[in-house]
Amino acid sequence: MSDNPSFVLRGVEDVVYEQRPVPEIRDDEVLIEVKKTGICGSDVHYLVAGRIAQFVVEKPMVLGHESAGVVAKIGAKVKTLKVGDRVALEPGATCRVCDACKSGRYELCPDMVFAATPPYDGTLARYYPIPADICYKLPDHLTLEDGAMMEPLSVAIHAVANIAQLRPNQSVAVFGAGPVGLLCMAAARALGASRVIAVDIVPHRLEFARSYAATEAYLPPAPEAGESRIRYSERNAKLMMQTLGIAERGPTAIDLVVDASGAEVSIQTGIIIAKAGGTFVQLGMGSPEIVIPVTTLLTKELNFKGSFRYGPGDYPLAIALVSQGKIDLKPLVTHRFSFDQAIEAFQTTRVGKSADGKGVIKAVISGPDVSPDDLL
Ligand SMILES: [Zn+2]
Ligand SMILES: [Zn+2]
């Protein structure tokens, strides 16, 4: 265990491979040999913009946070894992003592050490040190590639199961058919939703959503010249309700809207189509300030909630649903790259398709010396 090649972001549009020391581990930690890492919009955003909200890249940082790997070394006090265990990694280590941690909402911990969120290094390296209790053993029939997908799936599970508290037989509309939106649809189906409506402005994404987990798909119309966003959203919501037979109340009403797009018009439309007393969960990060129809929100007594990352219990539920065959992660991995091709993986994710024209849902980078075709 002498070398630790790492994929490092030095500044905007500036990435290099560095040979870094093999990390030391504390007594409660394990050292993971990282085998598979999915590329997320946030990783690409740091590469392109050097920041997300208050998180600014000020010193070189290893990228990557959606990972799975094999335990290479265990700390003196670790009893739950052994060398050779195949695990999915929660990429955020929490402080365990603050109010948020103690009240069971550790995603809100102010002292979170989150992989590839400045100033903390990410997982695109041969080795990554991590507390043992946030590593989850994978059943033998799941691959390490499935394991890397548990992070975005847990983000979806958090929104749908935990924040929204979806119940069987409820109706769900998901705005945005990117990776997290698709996983929200899959989570809703797995948890017994009777109706899962996919909304996106890109027809081929909708087509995929329909084949993957959605029961219906809706393509919004183009805005008219001079139409304000809120007037457009009102028109769009009306059309959507007519087209799909959505009522304001009763069995054909929408119990839960999840916005996984971050687009202002999607959020506005979602608030208008949600049923009275329904739930709206904001998951997509888009423009930081938007106009919302607040009177509609209050007269319908909507539960308008934010959802950030994942929390306690989300990883185990994600792994269980995939293990039971209720969610299939394989169709979402569209592109695979070797460790040496990390730059190409980022470029492909950024452009949204590879040179052969194939659209990207999720690109996965293998660890050093691991073949991209071996899902492990
Ligand atoms: Zn992510
Ligand atoms: Zn904390």
TrEMBL record:
Gene3D superfamilies with a match to the protein in the record: Medium-chain alcohol dehydrogenases, catalytic domain (3.90.180.10), NAD(P)-binding Rossmann-like Domain (3.40.50.720)
Location of the Enoyl reductase (ER) domain: 11-361
Keyword vocabulary terms for this entry: Metal-binding, NAD, Oxidoreductase, Zinc
Cofactor annotation: Zn(2+)
GO BP of this protein: sorbitol catabolic process
PROSITE patterns: ADH_ZINC
Family matches, as Pfam families: ADH_N, ADH_zinc_N
GO molecular-function terms, A-Z: L-iditol 2-dehydrogenase (NAD+) activity; zinc ion binding
Similarity field: Belongs to the zinc-containing alcohol dehydrogenase family.
Name assigned to this protein: Xylitol dehydrogenase
